[in-house]
Amino acid sequence: MARIPLDHPRTLKVRFMEAYSKRKYGGVLDPGLVAYHNPKVLSTMIRHESSVAKWDALDPTLKALATMASASEIGCSWCMDFGFWEANNQGVDQAKLRAVPNRQASDVYTPLERRVMEYSVAMTQTPPTVTDEMVDALRSDLSDPELVELTAIIALENQRSRTNAAMGLTSQGFKDQCELRPM
Q1: What CATH number is attached to the domain comprising 131?
Q2: Domain for residue 172, yes or no?
Q3: Domain that includes residue 26, residue range
Q4: Per residue in 127-148, pLDDT tens?
Q5: pTM for the full model?
Q6: Does one domain contain both 91 and 136?
Q7: Is 29 strand, coil or helix?
Q8: 111 located within any domain
Protein backbone atom coordinates (compact mmCIF):
# COMPACT_ATOMS: atom_id res chain seq x y z
CA MET A 1 0.00 0.00 0.00
CA ALA A 2 1.29 3.45 -0.90
CA ARG A 3 2.81 5.31 2.03
CA ILE A 4 1.56 8.65 0.75
CA PRO A 5 -1.95 9.39 -0.59
CA LEU A 6 -2.48 8.82 -4.29
CA ASP A 7 -5.62 10.94 -4.48
CA HIS A 8 -5.55 14.65 -5.21
CA PRO A 9 -8.13 17.43 -5.58
CA ARG A 10 -9.57 17.26 -9.13
CA THR A 11 -7.80 20.36 -10.43
CA LEU A 12 -7.34 21.00 -14.12
CA LYS A 13 -3.66 20.07 -13.78
CA VAL A 14 -4.50 16.71 -12.17
CA ARG A 15 -7.10 15.91 -14.81
CA PHE A 16 -4.63 16.79 -17.58
CA MET A 17 -1.92 14.60 -16.01
CA GLU A 18 -4.34 11.69 -15.64
CA ALA A 19 -5.62 12.04 -19.22
CA TYR A 20 -2.09 12.13 -20.63
CA SER A 21 -1.02 9.13 -18.54
CA LYS A 22 -4.07 7.09 -19.53
CA ARG A 23 -3.54 7.87 -23.21
CA LYS A 24 0.18 7.06 -23.15
CA TYR A 25 0.26 4.14 -20.68
CA GLY A 26 -3.32 2.91 -20.42
CA GLY A 27 -3.53 3.99 -16.79
CA VAL A 28 -2.46 6.64 -14.33
CA LEU A 29 1.04 5.90 -13.04
CA ASP A 30 1.23 5.74 -9.26
CA PRO A 31 4.75 7.27 -9.16
CA GLY A 32 3.31 10.33 -10.90
CA LEU A 33 0.54 10.57 -8.32
CA VAL A 34 3.11 10.39 -5.52
CA ALA A 35 5.38 12.97 -7.15
CA TYR A 36 2.41 15.29 -7.73
CA HIS A 37 2.58 16.14 -4.03
CA ASN A 38 5.65 18.18 -5.01
CA PRO A 39 5.02 19.62 -8.50
CA LYS A 40 8.66 20.68 -8.91
CA VAL A 41 9.78 17.09 -8.36
CA LEU A 42 7.11 15.81 -10.78
CA SER A 43 8.09 18.36 -13.43
CA THR A 44 11.76 17.43 -13.14
CA MET A 45 10.94 13.73 -13.32
CA ILE A 46 8.86 14.21 -16.48
CA ARG A 47 11.55 16.27 -18.21
CA HIS A 48 14.25 13.79 -17.23
CA GLU A 49 12.28 10.71 -18.33
CA SER A 50 11.43 12.45 -21.64
CA SER A 51 15.11 13.06 -22.23
CA VAL A 52 16.09 9.50 -21.26
CA ALA A 53 13.51 8.12 -23.72
CA LYS A 54 15.64 9.62 -26.53
CA TRP A 55 18.76 7.65 -25.59
CA ASP A 56 19.39 5.17 -28.38
CA ALA A 57 22.97 3.92 -28.23
CA LEU A 58 22.13 0.72 -26.32
CA ASP A 59 20.14 -2.21 -27.67
CA PRO A 60 16.59 -2.19 -26.19
CA THR A 61 16.90 -5.77 -24.94
CA LEU A 62 20.11 -5.01 -23.04
CA LYS A 63 18.54 -1.85 -21.61
CA ALA A 64 15.43 -3.76 -20.50
CA LEU A 65 17.39 -6.60 -18.91
CA ALA A 66 19.61 -4.13 -17.03
CA THR A 67 16.67 -2.17 -15.63
CA MET A 68 14.70 -5.29 -14.76
CA ALA A 69 17.73 -6.85 -13.02
CA SER A 70 18.14 -3.74 -10.86
CA ALA A 71 14.43 -3.57 -10.07
CA SER A 72 14.45 -7.27 -9.19
CA GLU A 73 17.49 -6.90 -6.95
CA ILE A 74 15.86 -3.98 -5.09
CA GLY A 75 12.51 -5.77 -4.96
CA CYS A 76 10.39 -3.09 -6.63
CA SER A 77 7.30 -4.88 -7.90
CA TRP A 78 6.02 -1.66 -9.49
CA CYS A 79 9.19 -1.33 -11.56
CA MET A 80 9.15 -5.02 -12.53
CA ASP A 81 5.52 -4.71 -13.63
CA PHE A 82 5.90 -1.48 -15.60
CA GLY A 83 9.33 -2.47 -16.92
CA PHE A 84 7.88 -5.69 -18.36
CA TRP A 85 5.07 -3.75 -20.07
CA GLU A 86 7.43 -1.12 -21.44
CA ALA A 87 10.01 -3.62 -22.72
CA ASN A 88 7.30 -5.81 -24.22
CA ASN A 89 6.00 -2.79 -26.14
CA GLN A 90 9.53 -2.30 -27.50
CA GLY A 91 9.59 -5.87 -28.80
CA VAL A 92 11.79 -7.46 -26.14
CA ASP A 93 11.32 -11.23 -25.86
CA GLN A 94 8.85 -11.98 -23.03
CA ALA A 95 10.72 -15.17 -22.11
CA LYS A 96 13.82 -13.12 -21.31
CA LEU A 97 11.80 -10.62 -19.28
CA ARG A 98 10.03 -13.34 -17.29
CA ALA A 99 13.30 -15.09 -16.46
CA VAL A 100 15.04 -12.04 -14.93
CA PRO A 101 14.23 -12.88 -11.28
CA ASN A 102 15.69 -16.39 -11.80
CA ARG A 103 18.27 -15.41 -14.40
CA GLN A 104 21.05 -17.66 -13.03
CA ALA A 105 18.98 -20.79 -13.72
CA SER A 106 17.69 -19.70 -17.12
CA ASP A 107 19.15 -20.67 -20.48
CA VAL A 108 17.45 -17.91 -22.53
CA TYR A 109 20.28 -15.38 -22.27
CA THR A 110 23.35 -14.73 -24.38
CA PRO A 111 26.71 -14.33 -22.63
CA LEU A 112 26.51 -10.55 -23.17
CA GLU A 113 23.02 -10.37 -21.67
CA ARG A 114 24.28 -12.25 -18.62
CA ARG A 115 27.23 -9.86 -18.24
CA VAL A 116 24.89 -6.86 -18.52
CA MET A 117 22.62 -8.20 -15.76
CA GLU A 118 25.62 -9.12 -13.59
CA TYR A 119 26.91 -5.54 -14.00
CA SER A 120 23.46 -4.17 -13.18
CA VAL A 121 23.24 -6.20 -9.98
CA ALA A 122 26.80 -5.19 -9.01
CA MET A 123 25.91 -1.51 -9.50
CA THR A 124 22.77 -1.99 -7.41
CA GLN A 125 24.63 -3.37 -4.39
CA THR A 126 25.40 -1.04 -1.49
CA PRO A 127 28.23 -0.33 -1.86
CA PRO A 128 28.54 -1.16 -5.56
CA THR A 129 30.59 -4.28 -6.32
CA VAL A 130 31.55 -3.48 -9.93
CA THR A 131 35.01 -4.74 -10.85
CA ASP A 132 37.48 -3.75 -13.54
CA GLU A 133 37.05 -7.23 -15.01
CA MET A 134 33.28 -6.73 -15.40
CA VAL A 135 33.79 -3.46 -17.24
CA ASP A 136 36.55 -4.91 -19.43
CA ALA A 137 34.30 -7.84 -20.37
CA LEU A 138 31.47 -5.46 -21.29
CA ARG A 139 33.84 -3.27 -23.32
CA SER A 140 34.71 -6.29 -25.46
CA ASP A 141 31.12 -6.19 -26.80
CA LEU A 142 29.90 -2.65 -26.14
CA SER A 143 31.21 0.67 -27.39
CA ASP A 144 32.07 3.35 -24.86
CA PRO A 145 28.83 5.25 -25.64
CA GLU A 146 26.84 2.05 -25.09
CA LEU A 147 28.60 1.36 -21.79
CA VAL A 148 27.99 4.93 -20.60
CA GLU A 149 24.29 4.62 -21.49
CA LEU A 150 24.07 1.23 -19.78
CA THR A 151 25.62 2.64 -16.62
CA ALA A 152 23.35 5.69 -16.65
CA ILE A 153 20.17 3.65 -17.18
CA ILE A 154 21.09 1.31 -14.31
CA ALA A 155 21.72 4.29 -12.03
CA LEU A 156 18.37 5.77 -13.05
CA GLU A 157 16.57 2.50 -12.40
CA ASN A 158 18.15 2.38 -8.97
CA GLN A 159 16.65 5.81 -8.27
CA ARG A 160 13.24 4.79 -9.62
CA SER A 161 13.13 1.44 -7.80
CA ARG A 162 14.37 2.80 -4.50
CA THR A 163 11.92 5.71 -4.64
CA ASN A 164 8.96 3.51 -5.54
CA ALA A 165 9.85 0.87 -2.96
CA ALA A 166 10.28 3.53 -0.25
CA MET A 167 6.89 5.02 -1.15
CA GLY A 168 5.27 1.57 -0.90
CA LEU A 169 4.23 1.40 -4.55
CA THR A 170 3.39 -2.04 -5.89
CA SER A 171 2.40 -3.55 -9.22
CA GLN A 172 -0.45 -1.85 -11.08
CA GLY A 173 -1.12 -4.74 -13.47
CA PHE A 174 0.71 -3.40 -16.55
CA LYS A 175 2.32 -6.80 -17.19
CA ASP A 176 -1.15 -8.37 -17.29
CA GLN A 177 -1.92 -6.28 -20.37
CA CYS A 178 0.91 -8.08 -22.18
CA GLU A 179 -0.30 -11.61 -21.55
CA LEU A 180 -1.86 -13.51 -24.40
CA ARG A 181 -5.58 -13.95 -23.89
CA PRO A 182 -7.76 -16.59 -25.54
CA MET A 183 -9.91 -15.28 -28.34
Answers
A1: 1.20.1290.10
A2: no
A3: 12-54
A4: 999 999 999 999 999 999 999 9
A5: 0.93
A6: yes
A7: coil
A8: yes
